[in-house]
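seq:
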Amino acid sequence: MPLRRDQSSNLTFAEPSRVARRLLWHLYSIGSRRIEQPDHHEPYEKPGAHLFWVQSGSGWVEYMDRRWAVERGRKVWLLDMSRPRTYIPQPNGYLTITGVRFGGPGLEFWHETLNSSAQPEFQLDDAQRVRSVYHNLWRLARRRPLGWEWQVHMHINELLGQLLMSRGLLVSPETELPAPVVRVLNALAANPLKDWKARELAAVARVSYSGLRALFRKCGQGTIHQNIQRVRLDQARLLLADSRLSIKDVAAQLNFSSEFYFSHFFRKHTGLTPTEFRRRLQLNPTSQRTSTEAGGTTS
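struct:
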């Protein structure tokens, strides 16, 4: 995927590879732009989305026949690039926006589910997490390590998970789970690569650690630890299915301190080493489902 820089701004542009364009979330550009005059964009020729926030200054974005005020804070905006849009700074002022432009299979369904055409503004509980993911994406786009397009896919997925969380879409509205448990399950789903600690999740849940343990036990969701391990195991299987990634790469993406500890974790919960798991996939692709069903987690 060749990259180029826009010298008039701090944008890095990317041309997605054929595999990434077909299968993964992929970057079109990432970075920041300082806008001093109204900046109009006609519909993009490819399906795409622009996720951005205000770094400095203030102004408006005209989109879907409405004008939205944009300024610094915990808000981000998601625009459908197949629609015309105009970024407007305050009179005699400027507007600096930072974000990513990306595409991927099924993007139109995300716009529909998030209702980004009618409501492109998202209020985040933890805007810093989105900015942290952005910096990871920026480093990947600049350095392009082995398997970087897959990592880009996972990070964009995390960004979209944050948007889902902000609108309460990851857990069914009919659920009777306590709100602290829902917050934990949403956090795990939105950031599955993170090496979560139970006490971190208690902070996310906004209850004490002992209180959170009791809530999980009461509502039949297993232990906090079991939920953390289940999410990590699902991600391990998904990453191992990508033959372009070495086992060491998979261990690093899952934040294990070494390949040895990752292999020990995987074998403990599935009965297979990562290499044996991959061999089974190569012999019989349908065995992934079988091994997933057979390899439950333990507390």
